[in-house]
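Recap from last week: sequence in, structure out.
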Amino acid sequence: MSPQDALVQALALPAATLSVQWGDAQVAKVGGKIFAIVTTDGGLSFKASEIAYAALIESGRARPAPYLARASWVRFDDLADLDPDEVAHWLSQAHALVCAKLTRAQRQGLNLTQA
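Predicted structure tokens:
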């Protein structure tokens, strides 16, 4: 899987938008809040549940995301060997975690009433 494939999957989620920040990092947001980052070096960082964070870090599959690890963010430096369906699931979960933190009015404004 390529970093661009991961970005396409992230942007396919409901109300997801793209922002370019911190140089050339491609940032996927929902409601103005970040849920995934594709960096210029081809890495992928995203918000994870506390359980997923622990499992991915302890297994060695991912590492704590710089500057964001305290908020349960993980980073994959190389996406080549990752299963696209698994990445899609992780991104969907990251999107859902961030949507859950939006206000009801924000979710309604984005047509995310089920999120």
